Amino acid sequence: MYIFSAGTFLSFAMVGIFQRSLRLRTSLRQLSFHGSTSSTDTLSSLVLRGRLFPISSPSVFFSTHRTLQAPNDGPKSLSDTPPPRRPFSRVTEEDLTFFRTLLPGRTITDPDLLESSNVDWLKSVRGSSEVLLRPQTTEEVSQILRYCNSHNLAVNPQGGNTGLVGGSVPVYDEIVLSTALMNNILHFNDVSGILTCQSGCILENLSLYLEERGHIMPLDLGAKGSCQIGGNVATNAGGLRLLRYGSLHGTVLGLEVVLADGRVLDCLSTLRKDNTGYDLKQLFIGSEGTLGVITAVSILCPQKPKSVNVVFLGCETFEQLLKTFQLSKRMLGEILSAYEFLDSECLNLLKTHLKLQNPVSDCPFYIVIETQGSDPNHDEEKLHNFLEEAMASSLVVDGTVATEEGKIKALWSMRERITEALTHDGFTYKYDISLPVERIYQLVTDMRRHLGDRAKSVVGYGHVGDGNLHLNITSPAKNAALLAAIEPFVYEWTAKFQGSISAEHGLGLKKRNYIHYKDLLQPEKHPRNNCSIQEKDRLKVSVCDGGFSLRADDLCVQVHQPARHRRRHGQALRRLDGDPLQVVVQRAVLVVVGDQPQLGAGVTRSHVRRHELWEESKRRRVS
Amino acid sequence: MSGRVLVGVKRVIDYAVKIRVKPDNSGVVTDGVKHSMNPFCEIAVEEAVKLKEKKLIKEVVAVSCGPQQSQETIRTALAMGADRGIHVEVTGKDYDTLGPLQVSKILAALAKKEEAQLVILGKQAIDDDCNQTGQMTAALLDWPQGTFASEVSLENDKVKVVREIDGGLETIKISTPAVLTADLRLNTPRYATLPNIMKAKKKKIANVKPADLGVDLTSRLEVLRVDEPPQRQAGMKVETVDDLVVKLKDAGKV
Predict the structure, then answer these.
(1) Do B120 and B180 form a contact (C-beta atoms < 8 A)?
(2) Using the beta-carbon criterion (under 8 Å), do B193 and A407 form an inter-chain contact?
(3) CA of A376 to nearest chain B CA: how many angstroms apart?
């Protein structure tokens, strides 16, 4: 299936299209699965090939046909086997000289200093990078990537290195590109609440900066002391405030991204509303560093609430927990800002390893509710009414309220420090699953039953308000048999209920092979659902002379812009030498399903005709 | 021991809040700032409630001196397990100059009036750090005092108190009635749970004026000026020892 986009301009030279498409087609053939570097300067492929999406691994190669075969490794888990090393060059002295000239004092090759960049936060994966680069400006990042692209060197962008799926550290000897020194706040507009900063700013620092100016960041995570905003955007981090402020797809207004060949894509708009052209930045949000290195972010920040209250409640059953959720939405309404849950096993872990006491009496489930508002009296009244109702209708067995900052922090730590407690309990197997909200805890109970005595603890906690479960299993030491018992089971279970195997943690290294589980069991149900895994799997951004194109084996979106139709709006693709390339507004999309072009909005017969001519010429070229 | 315990609770600026000095340097900004119960007073309330749970005393009475908002602090104490509250209304100028001397006079009067066996207070308030109220109250009542208590046990008519002092821990035995002040390690205050918060709404808080107790609130102290502590200067990093010596010489330190 191809999606061929045509512009609205009528005097589009057809020859122009064919020439460009010819070049594109050629490059598509060049970019085979074993990934040769495209060396044509008219068409550079911007594949930031790290260790994601191992196309060369046959067991997980999905061809164009619809039926998805299960990995032929059978029950053995795939997340342990790393992808094979692609034929990238190794770093030479010459390369190091270049880096040292470009970044004096910020090119690190000392193995001790590299240690922290080679190992992830969970200490579960280790890379063997020999070079760590710490640029301070976008220009430096651009030059590094241009150099690496032309010398076939693999690059691993790294932010705070707090990711939980092994995606932030190198698999082999990729050069680590750290944004740690790009920590300047560029601008804050306190009327609109829009903050512009470099991507290496630590989330907590941004929060403190904003709090002094009466605003807060729209996201909040347990890792806020170390995670960087660039990484948050690249992984589309969720966090504790998603329920209230939405995901980064909504709150990020602009990005500055350096593409793999060094070109800088400047979408760093600070406009709240801008419907001119494709919203390119959305591709990079959640792309996990595969499409470009984010160097600057502009984000919309909400007002700092004058009144914050946290409630810690105890429930007897999960159904009551869900009913309490409905009640809280109804009675707390717009002041509800977080609804999290944890089970009694989590609390036991907190007691045992972190010596935190239970604020209420022991119950099977606990809820943490946070409200944020602009009027303390208004919020307290609503909260008291809600709590009275919850207690009176026996939805909630026990609870406590905190209005003071110290107590609020103490109650939040019951939820935020579970990850820490788990690391003390032993080797942790982490799963971040999105499910229909009624089914969330069923996975935990089924997993407990399935594993029996083999696991030390099986706990469930998470953002139940967003339908997101964090399922964690611990064992005294890393145990392959246990992993084999857990892994296909948890993903099949998730697929059975049309859940997502990675709600907010991303795929990284550990879950890259499980992306297909979304459609695994019910492909017949969605015959028209062609925008599924394969496309995401192999989506790469290519930049060509006339515009840019998103390319995957089955999905091809092309944007063409002849010279005379340059427009003021639209995103600018800045070449390294400063020559701006305008991308035109796309309004017509010709969807071709199989061989039949479908007329969509704005598509005319002439587009169809043009497409037919292109197909014709393609056939003639092949024959 | 059948008895009544009087617990003093003070409404102070929450310890997590960043304090700002008023532009005219007359005091700190208190309007619109989050207030809560003094942490040491929480420990005192917790200790009193624990004694009641052990059936060693009969009733816990929470007392606070201040404006209308002090009633919230008393409610928190009630939610933690106190039986009833007494709000001594002090407002306006009197409240601004209210200090340990005045409060201890009020507490002494109340202790006599309520016939309390024990008066438990926090060792100090986090806003003024005076550490005087407990001692003054004991002196006015001529009662023994067990201050900086990190452990309290009641034995018949006596109270055994383990005090935290500079040299270590001192254990003393004092007879009742007595005044105790709570130190940090006495206990961990409980969270006020919902059922108790609901019950607290129904408990009584009596309203009393200082004049009714025959207390004179005039202060013998006058606050002249309040200043912020000097800003901490950023440090400097030097590459070598020679650089350090040069910098020290420049600064005139060497």
Answers:
(1) yes
(2) no
(3) 10
